Known about the structure:
Elements: E1 8-13, E2 16-30, E3 33-43, E4 51-53, H1 55-58, E5 62-66, E6 71-75
Antiparallel strand pairs: 1-2, 2-3, 3-4, 5-6
Amino acid sequence: MPPKAARKILGMGLNGFIMGSNSVAQFLHLAEYTATNVPVATTYSPFHNYASVGMGFLKNYSVIINYVRGYIGLRPPEEEVVTKEIL
């Protein structure tokens, strides 16, 4: 996070407003996949200082979260199939 990042309201949680700042990560490594220029948000918390990947990145994928087996899967969208009716 840049040292002078503007603190703002990122959203609303169960305990009130979520304060933090938006930034862009140079890269994100997930197994063998690397994404570049990923929008992230860093929340202000006394417990951790991790960045969160949000919908700015995840909206481009089908996301599967398996809590039982402890993994997350991301699938790029299928290419759009174009069909035409023949009259």
